[in-house]
Every structure is written in C-alpha cells, then in structure tokens.
Amino acid sequence: MRIGEIAALVGVTARAVRHYHHLGLLPEPVRRANGYRDYTVRDAVLLARIRRLTELGLGLHEVRDVLADDAGRDLVEVLEELDEDLARQEALLRERRARLAELLEQAREGRLTAEGPVSPRLAELFGEMARASARRPGPEPAMAARDRELLALLDTVAPDAEQERLMGAMRRMTEAPGAMERAYAVYERLDALVDADPADARVEEAAQELAALLPREVLEQGGRPPEGGLMDTCLADFSPAQAAVVTRALGLAVERVR
Questions:
Q1: Neighbour count for residue 171 (Cβ, 10 Å)
Q2: Cα 133 from chain centre
Q3: Could you tell me which residues come within 8 angstroms of residue 219 by beta carbon, excluding any fewer than 6 positions away?
Q4: What are the Cα distances from residue 138, in Å, to 22, 135, 188, 242?
Q5: In terms of Cα–Cα distance, which of 152, 142, 169, 139 is closest to 106?
Q6: SS3 for the chain, per residue?
Q7: pLDDT 10s digit of each residue in the chain, 258 long?
C-alpha cells in the first residue's frame, strides 16, 4: 500500500502518517524501486493502534511509551493515569457548568452587573446596592461603582476562606437598619473630596462616618489596617483626600476594636 492508501484505510491523513514517521512512532517502510513507500498490513495495524491511543486522549509522547513495550504492560498504567485525568476534567467541567448556570440565572433576573460575572453572594450584595442607589435622587456616586469593582476583584483573587469572611462581614453590615443609606452618604462625601486637599476638615468627618460603617472582619488579623499589595494599589487609584479618608477610617476602626 502507498501512503494515501494506508491513511485512508486507517482513517487518518497522509500528513499524520508522515508526522508519526518523523516522531519515530511508525517505522519507515521499505521503499519500492520507484521510491514510493510500500506499507504492509503490519504497518496498518500499528497505525490503527496509534490512532486508537490518541483518540483516548494520550499525547504522542505517551503513545511512544506504550508502543515501546510490546507486551502492553505500560498500557494499563497509562490508561489508569488517563482515566484519572479525565475524571479531573469531568469534575472541572461540572463545576464550570454550575458556575455558568448561576451566571445565566443572574442575567435572566437582571442581576448581572457591569462588574460581573461575580459569585452569587456578591451578586446579591450588588443587587442591594442597586436598590439603595435607585432610592436616592441623582446619579450613583462614582465611589460606589469603584467599590463594586474592588469587591469584584476580591471575589476573584481572594482565597475562598477570605471571601467567606469578607462577605459575611458585608452581609452583617448591610443588614443593619439604614446601613446602605449611610454607606451611600459616605460615597457622596468621598466623591466631593476628589479635588480636595488631604488637610480639608471634611476628610476627618468622612473618615469618622466610614469607620462607623466598617465591620470588624474587614481588618486583618493582628489588629492593624491592611497594608501593601492590593491596599496600596487601591489607594493609589484614589485622590489624595480620598486615600486619606480610607487610611484614617481604618486606623479609627482598629482603635475601636482593640
């Protein structure tokens, strides 16, 4: 058989056959006097085995290991590893589909915000923020939108345990009577300070109001405000007066819980 014939027989392409030759998976057959390769039934059997192994999900380097052992002793081990890998992929696929179902539900109910997709617990909080904003006159404070962006970032990068702690704190804070309205009042104060001097008297007033809203759980363990890394990045995105409010509020909150 010529290369096109064996490829058609086994159900692969001639290019794949040449690639298997190049990798040493399929030995080069003898050539006829005219220079064409002359494939035998044994070559077709080996090529079919390569196809079956690759269809099972084995990489070509794994196929080479299997073929190197004619007794097939390595095949069981490789297939067991493949089965474990497929099980992991299957679990990941189920997890992604469950996440997609949550997002579809959020979208159908109109709860998928511009910061989404986010976890269901954060989507619920964003829904409460949207309802609180709708009860107010005028446009939403810019700081409220920035706060949602930060929460969406933490929802992605923070460890699960930290997310649970933070969201539990946020839930307890928002459940307090009038808490969401007070939060939006602070957002408005921060918006008003965007061009202010850090020494402005309104900085201390806003810091006092913000500190009163902060639940104990937003502070790092050890009784000090969070610093470095993400906190520095967030503060750098604020105006000097706004950053002063947040820094001062965290300090006041630490003093309150000591």
A1: 14
A2: 28
A3: 225, 226, 250, 253, 254, 257
A4: 70, 10, 11, 21
A5: 152
A6: CCHHHHHHHHCCCHHHHHHHHHHCCCCCCCECCCCCECCCHHHHHHHHHHHHHHHCCCCHHHHHHHHHCCCCHHHHHHHHHHHHHHHHHHHHHHHHHHHHHHHHHHHHCCCCCCCCCCCHHHHHHHHHHHHHHHCCCCCCCHHHHHHHHHHHHHHHHCCHHHHHHHHHHHHHHHHCCCHHHHHHHHHHHHHHCCCCCCCCHHHHHHHHHHHHHCCHHHCECCCECCCCCHHHHHHHCCCHHHHHHHHHHHHHHHHHHC
A7: 899 999 999 999 999 999 999 999 999 998 888 888 999 888 888 898 899 888 888 889 888 888 876 555 556 776 677 677 778 878 888 887 887 787 677 667 666 565 566 777 777 788 788 888 888 888 889 998 888 888 887 777 777 777 777 777 777 777 778 888 888 999 999 999 999 999 999 999 999 999 888 766 555 444 444 444 566 777 888 999 999 999 999 888 878 766
174, burial (CB in 10 Å: exposed 0-12, middle 13-18, buried 19+)? middle
Cα 190 from Cα 182, distance rounded (Å): 13
Short-list 72, 22, 71, 12, CA closest to 44 = 12
Asked whether the beta carbons of 191 and 141 are under 8 A apart, the reply is: yes
Give pLDDT, residue 222.
Answer: 41
Q: Which tokens go with 94?
A: 């189920």
Token output for 104: 């579809």
- The candidate with the shortest Cα–Cα distance to 54, out of 11, 9, 1, is 11
